[in-house]
Specification:
22% strand; alpha+beta; Peptide Methionine Sulfoxide Reductase, Chain A; single chain; 7 helices; 221 residues
């Protein structure tokens, strides 16, 4: 089959328009994906909490805020690295707003505790919010002020300048739902069973519910 020049031109134009529309939709969709970085104590727990939120695409456990390059879990938890156990929450801003995620974050931790979270003590387990620009900082401050008014207690969670984020070791990712077997003091357990025992023993949900009551969004995760 052959085409004349007058037939080919509309065909090329139609393909170009279709491709352009596809490219614009793809770029628009990509532009709606945002990232929020927070530290809320044990990153297994924060990852578990936020991965179930509608609009959240992925949550990665990691380390940020310190001076040590490529830190390991031991580097961070023994202290001195300056890093926090943190998570990066990737979300679709068309489905869930950053403001909503920040409000949920404050109500999923003990933001009155400057020395760690629950049974986990030390600098790596402190709470924090990391921002990259003035707009994010202003939003975080507003949400923090609202949370403080709702709680009726002083919130000590700082809002810090975003720093390089280092994903944690592979065995930490999705720990809360892993069926991998590990050896614990209670004998061999799956990671998800060990996580449930840890979360309960650490008193996370009990303290959060004591502080926030029915406003606590993740108690029982």
């Amino acid at each position: 089959m052959s085409f004349t020049l007058t037939q080919v031109k509309p065909l090329i134009l139609g393909v170009a328009i279709t491709f352009g529309a596809f490219l614009n939709c793809t770029q628009a969709k990509a532009a709606d994906i945002e990232v929020l970085t927070v530290a809320g104590g044990c990153f297994w727990c924060v990852e578990s909490d936020f991965e179930g939120v509608v609009g959240v695409i992925d949550v990665v456990s990691g380390y940020t805020g310190g001076s040590v390059e490529n830190p390991t879990y031991k580097d961070v938890t023994r202290g001195g690295s300056g890093h926090y156990e943190a998570v990066q929450i990737k979300f679709d801003a068309d489905k869930v707003a950053s403001e909503q995620l920040l409000a949920m974050f404050f109500r999923s931790v003990d933001p009155t505790d400057a020395g760690g979270q629950f049974c986990d003590r030390g600098e790596s387990y402190r709470t924090a919010i990391f921002v990259s620009n003035a707009g994010e900082q202003a939003l975080a401050k507003n949400v923090r002020a609202e949370a403080q008014a709702a709680l009726g207690q002083k919130i000590v969670t700082p809002i810090l300048q975003e720093a390089k984020f280092y994903p944690a070791e592979a065995y930490h990712q999705d720990y809360y739902k892993s069926s991998d077997i590990i050896l614990t003091r209670f004998g061999p357990k799956t990671k998800k069973d060990a996580y449930k025992r840890y979360r309960k023993a650490c008193g996370r949900d009990q303290r959060v519910q004591q502080l926030w009551g029915s406003a606590a969004p993740f108690v029982g995760n």
